[in-house]
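ARCHIVE CARD
Drawer: 12
Card no.: 0347
Subject: one protein chain, sequence and derived structure
Cross-reference: see card 0346
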Amino acid sequence: MAALGAFVVRRPVKLVLDRMADMRMTGKRHPYSSDFRIGLDENLRILAYEVTFYQNAGAAADLSPAVLERTLFHATNAYFVPNVRATAYSCRTNLPPNTAFRGFGGPQGMFVMESAIVKAAETLGVSPSEIQRRNLLRENDLFSYRQPAEMCNAELAWDTAAKLYDLPKLRQEVDAFNQQNERLKKGLSVMPICFGISFTKTAMNQARALVHIYTDGSVGVSTGAVEMGQGVNTKIAQVAAQTLGISPSRVKVESTNTTRVANTSPSAASATADLNGKATQMACETLRERLLRHAVLEYTLNYEGLEIRDEEVLAAGIPADTNWEKLVSSAYWRRVNLTENAHYATPDIHFDPVKNQGYPFAYHVYGTAYTTVTLDCLRGTYTFDALRIVHDFGESMHPAIDQGQIEGGAVQGIGWMTMEELIYNEEGRLLSNSLNSYKIPDLYSVPQRIDVHFLDTPGHPRAILRSKAVGSRH
């Protein structure tokens, strides 16, 4: 609209939307309507699952087809189902176009799978968790799109949570409370997850990095990652520092600019740290190799066992007669190239949209969450007593960042499931278009207690430094 105004009046135009206009026209998370059928054997093994998704795309496609694709990828959540028929329709409606939102269609697909399990459990007279645990993915089980579950931690996450948080005791406490109270009732949910890490459009899984080493020993890193508060720049700085063997204080991650790093993929799909971090790692490895080769000639050292650690040059573990700053300075005076760029493309991934088969994800992350709530049956109010999470972070590079991301994602999910209500009139105009009529989660909406346990796993080689993706933009 600003461009149109500038074209008409031939002058610069700045457009500032008020809050109500912004909320009316900004794309929202896709609502879905779904139908399912599920079949189990006498041992509670899921034999077949049939599901149809109807996605409310709004008046234009925008990202709806891609969101719908991820819904199909995550239709069976963390479970092995040998026979799956999943069909999805993107429906055009008289609403503003819906668009990308955290989870990108995955949560909608998982919710229907969990609903099917609960329905089956109620029909069979068993606990939903019995069906859940019995059908969790195991190593080399095939997803519906025929990719094997490699380095699968679904059962490990479930069993660790059950032991760490004492699931039988939690159930006993809930049952005892409900027997003793008439107006207040407690509930306990158990939710496993499995989420694929990569853009589902294969071509977008690429990134570049440009790294400069300056003569004072400082390092500048440019990538296509957009830092929006999720901590990706901190992780990229960690990658550069660890690869070069220097202090993170020497590394400056530059602002994102397509003049320096072109053709960037969006900071999305939880893949930003993996893609841009891997490119940074590759560039820094080349620079480190170049500097060590220079050290061999400059200081008459044996290349075998030569390394840079804590800004010291070590030969077979013994400090050599130089350090990082001296090495960089001498390399400059010997006209050694101290700049490198690298390109990373996630290996092995592919997907055939005609056959609906392939290897679309670099790896999967797993987790299990327990949520305890108290409901006031008279007033209709509720509180989240506790949220207990076991999550597969791999070998976390930065536990504080990862914990913040997992807590934020959990609270955002709680807001979606309990508070998010978009109301339109018959003409498709949004009525909940201000913070008076659209309630967002606040301090009183979050669980009174959030526990996050980092699952002890070796990570995945396709994750940057084996630290798995966690968060909306990592």
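Annotation on reverse: The radius of gyration is 26 Å. The longest helix spans residues 272-299.
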